[in-house]
Amino acid sequence: MTKIPDNNNDNYLSVYDTTFIVCDVETTGLSPYLNRITEIALIKIKECQITDTFTTLINPEQHIPAFITYLTGITDADVFDKPAFNEISEKIIKFFEPENGISPVFAGHNVSFDYKFLRESFRRLPEPIDFNYKTICTCKLSRRLFRQLKSKSLSSVSNYLEINQSVKHRAYDDTYATSQILIKLLEILQDKHDFEITNDIIKFQNTKIYSGTTVSPALKRVKINLKDIPVCPGVYYMKSSSGEILYIGKAKNLRDRISTYFRHNSELPEKIRKLLRNIYYLEWEKTASELSALILESHLIKKHKPRFNTASKRYRKHPFIKIDVQNKYPKIQKANEIENDGSYYYGPFSSGMTVNKLLKDIKEKFFVRKCEDKILKPSKKNSNCMYMDINECKAPCNFSITQDDYYNEVKKVHQFLINEGKVSAVKSYKLEMKNHSKKNEFEKAAFLRDRIKDIEKVLRYQKVITSTINNKKIIVKCDNCRSRELFFIHNGKLMKTYTINKEDEFSQRNIVEEITEITDYLFFSLSKYIKHKYTQQELDEIKVISNWLALNMDRNSYLEIDDTHSNKDILNFIFK
């Protein structure tokens, strides 16, 4: 029997350095020994985003019972001319190939079902393969994280996390829903429970679920009643017996977040258990919004450098498409972060696959440069490049196309991305999706459906992303039950914040004069194209604000200031 080497020897591999392969199989029955696979879907996740997929129907070489057909819609006729498992086994193994010597982690909802079917299928091959991987189960994780849910089924968890599951009991759609669940669970585990290491999560999914009320020794030591902790956003400090700040964290809800540390220690990662053994004091600082908490946390961590805060804590990367319009001959490329460089950013997209698909189509449909030069220096002495020869570029490098004509081509790309041109991504993909559906190519249609959803989600707040950086002026309004926090942003830089007490009319009247003064200065006196000089702290704020806006704008309000707005318009927006 051929053995697949399990190279996951790195017990400290972070979640964002781990490759997860989410799997779902449809079968002829429930027994991995007696029944066979009729359909398989695999989705690869790197840095908490989808990067690759594989899906196919499989001829099980046995009859599909009527109740299975009723459940999945897969008939004997559907799989009659499809490959048997041994014909696609090499493709599956290739999909699971280790990267940098590290094997992927096998993931699924009720993962043991899918894992056992694949393992037994490989064992039945003429040359058997020992299919052996570490596993993560989104159902087990949901039981530990969402105890309030009565059912932890795929549809129940999907609904709870607001993940659309359009088709049930088909491999690709179930796998896609599970992938989205896994990504959200990994974010929750890091953000709310400080799980950064994959092996810690693998252990956590199998820990006993407690329902008791045992008081943590650490809670007794800090002598704090959890009910005394405020229910609001803020930053908290964990200190040693000498007063050294050991850890700084932020929270949307301080009481909920801090309480997670003092539930049974067996559920926490080793790093946090070690932290709890050393804390003697716990303090917190309230903020008016989660965004304020994020900004304050970033500033305090850099100032105090607490030893239990991971020095290079990594967050999920949300890919963007970037057009560096500040250059004479802009280039279209992928970016993982927004910078204050004058470029246009489109995103963030939930999947790198959407960005890859868009960039591929832009390369094929438009005559924009593909060369590696960051800044192009045209000269008539330059010879034609390969892209000019294969008619994929009009060669601005040797003035074969004027700067104005090249910029018009870039403008078409912009219209393609924001769904305003004659040729747009959404229109093209919808037409392509219909054609695949007519041909019963449902996997290809589903792939395009996911790309369309991703793009349409971006379009809902795309104006905000470009406005946070590209010479624009905006006000962000964040509401809590008792207060409203205002962020005045110019060229991505946070210029001023205000907090208004909703219940205090005097406070509201008193602040009108101040706000009028700041808007007069920032938004009506400053040149539209003024450039600021940024400190490192301000650059950090730009990244925090821009990415937060991109991910949260559906739940909050903003106003982009232009020449049509008056001070009255701004005040109406603020107090609405």
Overview of this protein structure:
The chain has 4 domains: 2-204, Ribonuclease H-like superfamily/Ribonuclease H (Nucleotidyltransferase, domain 5); 217-304, GIY-YIG endonuclease (3-Layer(aba) Sandwich), CATH 3.40.1440.10; 320-457, no CATH class; 473-575, no CATH class. The mean pLDDT is 82. Helix 12 packs antiparallel against helix 19 (536-552) and helix 17 crosses helix 19. The chain starts with a strand and ends with a helix. The radius of gyration is 27 Å and the shape is globular. The chain has helices at residues 66-72, 76-79, 85-95, 111-123, 138-145, 154-160, 171-193, 198-204, 217-222, 254-259, 270-278, 290-304, 352-365, 386-389, 403-418, 425-438, 442-469, 505-525, 536-552, 567-575, and strands at 2-3, 20-27, 37-46, 49-57, 105-108, 129-130, 135-137, 234-239, 245-251, 281-286, 320-323, 332-335, 344-346, 473-479, 483-490, 493-501, 557-561. Strand 3 (37-46) and strand 4 (49-57) form a beta hairpin. It has 20 helices and 17 strands.
CATH architecture of the largest domain: 2-Layer Sandwich
Strand content: 15-25%
| Domains (count) | 4
Helix content: 40-55%
- The H-level CATH homologous superfamily of the largest domain, spelled out, is Ribonuclease H-like superfamily/Ribonuclease H
Question: What is the mean pLDDT?
Answer: 82
Alpha-beta classification:
alpha+beta
Q: Count of DSSP helices?
A: 20
Low-confidence stretches: none
Number of strands: 17
Shape: globular
CATH topology call of the largest domain:
Nucleotidyltransferase, domain 5
- Rg on CA atoms, Å: 27 Å
Largest sheet: 5 strands, mixed
User: Strand arrangement, largest sheet?
Assistant: 4-3-2-5-7
* Assigned CATH class of the largest domain: Alpha Beta
Spatial gap, N to C terminus: 70 Å
